[in-house]
Amino acid sequence: MRNFILEGKKIAKPVLVTTVLLTLLTCILSCTLYREYTLHFELDPWEIGTEFLSLLFPLFVTIPICWQLYYERRDRFLTYTLPRIGKGRYLVTKWCACAVSAFLIMMVPYFVSALFALYVRAPQALWPLPVGYSHVFLDLYAKAPVLYALALSAWKGLLGVLTMTFGFVLALYGGNIFVILTGPFIYVILENFFWAILGMPGLRFVTAFEPTSMSAEAVHAGSFIAGPALMCVVMGLAAFFFQKGKKRSIYQV
């Protein structure tokens, strides 16, 4: 626990700044952008105000966190930890601190802005549902918006942890900080384009992160599993490539 706290303190400032800024921005947007839209449910302003996060979230969970691991490798700090703590124990502790940070960066802004959209924003008349209207988990979305927002925010937090882990893996082996910090973002963009070209947008990682971007009929269990599973495969291949192809070691820069 002591090592976990120490690792958390190393990235506490950038994580806190990122979380606060994102929370303020999402709350403001959730309470303002909806005015030009037709609303059907109380949570609609929340979805409108947080749309930008579905594109930029890989940057928000990677840049404030993974830069520190890169500099520890570059400055050979990881090597200095070997006499005090084992390789696996140190990296697991560090990943746990980074995972909690990534989860909070996503979870807090999403859920707090949902509460603002529900209870703080100026009220606006709700329009009747048009014919053919669909929404993921419509009953929960309409009848228990707080529970829906909490569940979706927690899910986005978990996907934020997975995305951060991609950057974490790159930081363990990569030598270019720009590639490390933007790699997960570039991957999500390319993967999104790839599945769109193949006509299977329901399998995108973005769809798992933002299921409301698709019609309810197009979202299924595979939509929540395929994107994260593919990212795990790509992370494993990247680690294998660095270890076997590039012959790189975590403790040698």
Offer a quick outline of the entry.
The chain is mainly alpha-helical and 253 residues long. Helices cover 71% and strands 0% of the residues.
Please characterize this protein's 3D structure.
The protein is mostly helical. It has one domain (2-245). The chain has ten helices and no strands. α5 (87-119) runs antiparallel to α7. The longest helix is centred in the middle third of the chain and has 33 residues, at 87-119. The chain is globular. The mean pLDDT is 89.
List the helices and strands and how they pair.
Layout: H1 2-30, H2 44-49, H3 53-74, H4 77-80, H5 87-119, H6 138-143, H7 145-173, H8 177-197, H9 205-209, H10 221-245
Helix pairs in contact: 1-3, 1-5, 3-5, 3-7, 3-8, 5-7, 7-8, 7-10
Question: What proportion of the residues form beta strands (DSSP E)?
Answer: under 5%
Number of helices: 10
Shape estimate? globular
What does the average pLDDT come to? 89
End-to-end Cα distance, whole Å, is 28 Å
Largest sheet: none
Tally of individual domains: 1
Q: How would you spell out the order of helices and strands? A: HHHHHHHHHH
> Compute the gyration radius: what is it?
20 Å
- The class by helix and strand makeup works out as mainly alpha
Q: What is the total tally of β strands? A: 0
Approximately how much helix is present in the residues? Answer: over 70%
Spans of at least 5 consecutive residues with low confidence: none
